[in-house]
Write a structure and sequence with these properties.
Length: about 900
Amino acid sequence: MKDPSLANHHTGVVQAITFIFKSLGVKCVQFLPQIMPTYIYVIRTCDPGIREFLFQQLGTIISIVKQHIRNYLDDIFDLIRLLNGVQRFGPNLDDYMHLLLPPIVKLFDSSEVPLPVRKLHPELRGPAMETSPPWSFSWAGTTIVEDELLQMRARQKRSSHRKEETTTAEQVAPKKLPVSISNLSKAWSVHRLFSRDDWMEWLRRLSIELLKESPSHALRSCWALAQATIPWLDVTISTHMFIYLFMFFLDRDLFNAAFVSCWSELTEQDQDSLILSLQKALTSLDIPEIVQILLNLAEFMEHSDKGPLPLNTILLGERAANCRAYAKALHYKEDEFQRGPNTEILEALISINNKLHQPEAAYGVLQYAMKNYRAELQIQETWYEKLHDWDNALTAYEKKIDASPDDISLTMGRLRCLEALGEWGQLHEVACERWPLVDDEGRQQMARMAAAAAWGLQNWERMEEYVCLIPRDTFNGAFYRAVLNVHQDHFLQAKQCVDKAREILDTELTAMAGESYDRAYGAMVSVQMLSEIEEIVSYKLVPERREIIKEMWWERLQGCKQSVEDWQKIIHVRSLVIQPQEDLRTWLKFASLCRKSGKMVLSHKTLTLLLESDPSLDETTPISSIAVVKHPKIIFAYIKHLWKDGNKQVAFNQLHEFVKSTLSRYTTMNVPMRTGEVEGVDELNKLLARCYLKLGLWQQSMEPPARDVITSILGYYSKATEFDQDWYKAWHSWAFMNYEAVLHFKQQYLSSPPQSKSKSPSPLPSPLTPESGAEGGGDTTEGTQVSLLTEASDMDKMPKLSFSQSDYVLRYCAPAVHGFFRSIALSGENDSLQDTLRLLTLWFDYGQNQQVYEALIEGLKTIQINTWLQVSVCWKSNSRTSGLRNKFNWRRDRLISFR
């Protein structure tokens, strides 16, 4: 009823609802909150031709639920109020009442109104007394005696209503309707079913018959509506629409409930017959729609009090995995594991957990197998594949191939690993080597991966040879033929191949989308690749749209999951028209994704492809020397790759040298820093800021805190803020390092011997401040950050130092305060709670210092007053001492006075 597109079925729905209410009686009161708001909305928005019918049915419902409709009377009266306009005019009609009232009074005694409605029946006195107590006390003229009579009458009526409700509820329990077993057995019979359409018709017939023969009044009232809502026999309805309607109208809402209601009425022999039919439906043809519906039924029955269906769990697990219902497949495979693990079950558990994006569980299964079944079970190479651990899988396959070089399954596994690693050269070499040595069946298995390798190497002749052996009636066959046709500018044939691939994906996508979006994501990526093949045709034919298409591709890629495999497929398609050097932004993002996902080999391969050389082959030459001819961002990405790969000192040195060589370009170009007069200078400034931030972060992670180390790190962070004035991360890192210095030197002072505390501290260079240059922003702070509230509490417990004793501390306080104010102002959507709490900690402990005080006064002018709201409750709730609480209240009052 909530769907306006199904308005022509509202009459049938209302009839079904009325029938259910008549069958259940007062037991249906609990459903009023679900029904009445929608019912009233439909009356308000429906076609005027059916409004009278809806009001009649509403009256029937009210006669059943009686006083329980009171919560919806206001909305109902809003629907039937005829004199609303008169009411709105109000006192403005005083001068016209003699003209207005006579026609209204005539309505009371219209001859067109039926006599039972017009007559004043004595029976109305009772209902009048029932309705009078709520408003009788507002009558100014009632006497005490009248009030007491009204109240007594009301108490009597309430008591009688309670008795009536109890009696009615006990007497109105509906009896079960009779069930025709013979009609049901005819519906579930699976004789003479051969084609897909035959099985779809069988499911339709069984679904309708279950509703028609259900012993439940409510379900049986819906069978005619379901048959009318879903035009099963209409030949014009598409298969896709058929599936959609079934999934959303029967399977989701009624099919499972109807099955359970009939199941309990069947004899054991009839139940066995029905189970045999369901098993045949699961195994006869690979129809994902039917399998999905029966799997949902099995799950529903398992959770019901009727117990699980006596279906083979091994069969259910296999069918669930085949139709990509991985959550259900995992449930059944875990049930098999409890009965006794074996190699096949463990491999299936690893694979399913990985597909459900549960890598920890998948690794847990592998560790369990290695720990408990090392003697009985042999670790399989495919297990590493299921975990997407392609390097270990490739190593395992190559070891076995040395012993069995003619084993086609080992060759296929090796090819799969090389494809996942993007090693197109090795994959092409192995394919060419093995191609003449295998039979036609082996070539068909190798064809898709060999075609992908030839495509990656731009070897179109070999690709065409391999694609010929991929079956045309598969997605891969249609997809790779579309790629070839686009390359050869056969756009019409390419469009036909894309349409064929979409048709093949249609069934698979519909079945998986019925379970969840995550299950259907892989198919959605394939659909996106087909769409981009069509866009590539436009890219070739309409040069004016190329920049628009490239920007659209970039934005679309940002919405994709951070999956290396998916990104690799999509970028591979785009390489038909865009070379990697022409789309640095996308390829650098892909290299970053590979690095963060631990795919170091693929990350290295991507970066060397962009550099058009491999710096690792000549380690004596600094990578920064390539920066003059290559894009600096590629150099920076390669240095980050070195750091992630474990070469930390090399990466730090290379980055330091790279920054120096990049800065020298300013001198060569004679361009002043922080200007936009020359194209690319702003981008270079931002790149330098990120380089300096990384230098600070890396040095901070490699060396323990010391006086000279802290000074050096602050210098790097200060440069980061200088080159990018509006970068939150740089300011956050610089402020946090100053804060850490405060904690470090304070703790160092407190732990020093008493005699050393009386000595004047040795000179310490002041921390570099961004104000010596310009202001900027930064990267995420890496490294350990202790709990903020703990920090605040610990600092509060430390004794306060005199100014002469705490020069080391105070040298970093004002810069830290300034930096935190700046980072809070630039935080935007970032969470500024951490910075705000640290700022308050410094304020509480060192606000009396003149430099800190001045930094606070200036900083308060730069941030929003709402910033303090998020810390007020947090700080007060974690204040363990009255002193700290009093100090907070005093600082709060000072804050208000500043504002």
